[in-house]
Amino acid sequence: MFGTLKNPVFLAFSFGYMATLTLSYIFGSKIQNTAMNLGYIWISKWSCFVIFLAAVGMNAPNIFLESMFMFVLFNLTINPAYFMKKEIV
Questions:
Q1: By CB neighbour count within 10 A (0-12 exposed, 13-18 middle, 19+ buried), where does 63 fall?
Q2: Alpha-carbon distance values, 51 to 31, 34, 48, 69, 85 (Å)
Q3: Which of 22, 31, 45, 52 has the fewest CB atoms within 10 Å, counting from its CB?
Q4: What residue ranges do the domains of the chain occupy?
């Protein structure tokens, strides 16, 4: 919320980041091998973190710190297991 008050671009970056993470989790759920799935999701979510953080730093440096905390919060709280297919035993 504080980032939105500083710069309305914060909202666009946060929605873009959430959409990108969701898409990468959905694409990761198509991978049948669990180890490959977890590796793909780990690499993709931290790559998105670096890319979006660099984009925020170049385009809106006044919201960099708020964006970094928000991106870390998303990476740590959104559980990719929600997007994985459940195997019936």
A1: buried
A2: 23, 25, 5, 15, 28
A3: 22
A4: 2-81
- For the record, the structure tokens of 56 come out as 């925020």
Tens digits of per-residue pLDDT, 20-55? Answer: 998 998 888 888 888 888 889 889 989 999 999 999
CA 86 to chain CA mean position, Å: 22
pLDDT digits 0-9 by tens, 74-88: 888 877 766 666 654
CA pair distance 83, 22, nearest whole angstrom: 9
Best CA proximity match to 7, nearest among 54, 80, 74, 62? 62
- Check residue 63 and report its DSSP letter: G
CB distance 57 to 64 below 8 Å:
yes
